[in-house]
Amino acid sequence: MHVLVLGGAGMVGRKFIERLARDGALGGKPVDKVTAQDIVAATAPAGAPFAFEAIASDMSKPGEAEKLIASRPEIIIHLAAVVSGEAEADFDKGYLINLDGTRYLFEAIRHAGDGYKPRVVFTSSVAVFGAPFHDKIEDEFFTTPLTSYGTQKAIGELLLCDYSRRGFFDGVGIRLPTICVRPGTPNKAASGFFSNIIREPLNGQEAVLPVSDQVRHWHASPRSAVGFLVHAATMDTAAIGPRRALTMPGYSCTVAEQIETLRKVAGDNVVKRIRREIDPVIDGIVAGWPRNFDAKRAASLGFKAEKNFEEIIRVHIDDELGGTFVA
Fold first, then answer.
1. Per-state percent for the chain, helix, strand, coil, to nearest 5
2. Do 293 and 250 touch, CB atoms closer than 8 A?
3. Which of 62, 320, 282, 100 is closest to 191 using CA atoms?
4. What pLDDT score was predicted for residue 208?
5. pLDDT at residue number 185
6. pLDDT at position 189, please?
7. Nearest residue to 66 via CA among 114, 9, 106
8. How many CA atoms lie within 13 A of 122 on its CB side?
9. Cα–Cα distances in Å, from 152 out to 158, 245, 306?
10. How far apart are alpha carbons 130 and 117 in whole angstroms?
11. What is the DSSP letter of 128?
12. What is the pTM of this model?
């Protein structure tokens, strides 16, 4: 099996490829090649039992998608995107990458011929939903995004459903919760502070909280995100029906609850490293985001995530910090 990972140098892409390297297979089928595409070259996973190819390219440029699928990968994981804060700040770039790049990919597959029909896993976002919200957003809730990023992802979902309906490929759209705790350094995502206020304090560094601690949001760990991708790539899509976009399971909590859970796990000294400083721009973006979900469809189809925020913090400590932290 050949797996193509678009956005393969990013955090989730890297972890997904590392999972493939550990398992050596996907859905019971041996993986013999992984191609990782990104704007920068991805690093090969240690000890991979398959051939690995890193391609540095811009998939928003005409003709690039055709090159990427020329070898007919059976599984395509589409993670490539401009994140929320950057898509809102740079309108043209957001639409170029998040919409045009996606459509170029879908069109390249449609015109490939020879019966080529890969499984395409498209990573969407809960940003496709916009206020006013129910206490819990059900699977039937309207997608009425209030950001450019959410709009771009919602359009991608519609295209995925239509191209799948027409038989051009076998698509699964997964609306990711905010992935927390993200390892590494802060990025340009408006949601980045959800990870920052856990990650930096555990590393002995100060973190800025730019919103009220009463902000509530939907979370899952990087480990769960990889699990979502694996399941979406291997599941029987006959059970999904024509509505190919699924809201992934997660855990809803307030920032205050995040902080109190951090206190429980790591102590008062770690929590003291969080400094409150409201950022009106971030605060305004987050105000239009959903807070809680009832992800019954995804759960019934076998997708799983953490049941509480303590699990999410402990996943980060175990996977990224070697089981310890700066007290």
1. 40, 20, 40
2. yes
3. 282
4. 95
5. 83
6. 79
7. 106
8. 30
9. 10, 14, 28
10. 33
11. G
12. 0.95
**Closest C-alpha to 150, from 228, 78, 98:** 98
Cis amide prior to 132 (ω within 30 degrees): yes
Q: Please report the pLDDT score of residue 171 as a whole number.
A: 98
Q: Which residues are catalytic?
A: 149
Q: Which amino acid is at 276?
A: R
Angle at 148 between CA 147 and CA 150, to 5 degrees: 65
Chain position carrying tokens 């991979």: 48
The series of mean pLDDT values per 10 residues for the chain, 327 residues long, is 97 98 97 98 96 97 97 98 91 97 98 97 94 91 93 98 98 96 85 95 96 95 98 96 97 97 98 96 84 96 98 98 97
Q: Where are the beta strands (DSSP E) in 166-301?
A: 170-176, 178-179, 207-209, 216-220, 245-247, 251-254, 274-276
DSSP string of 218-231?
EEE-HHHHHHHHHH
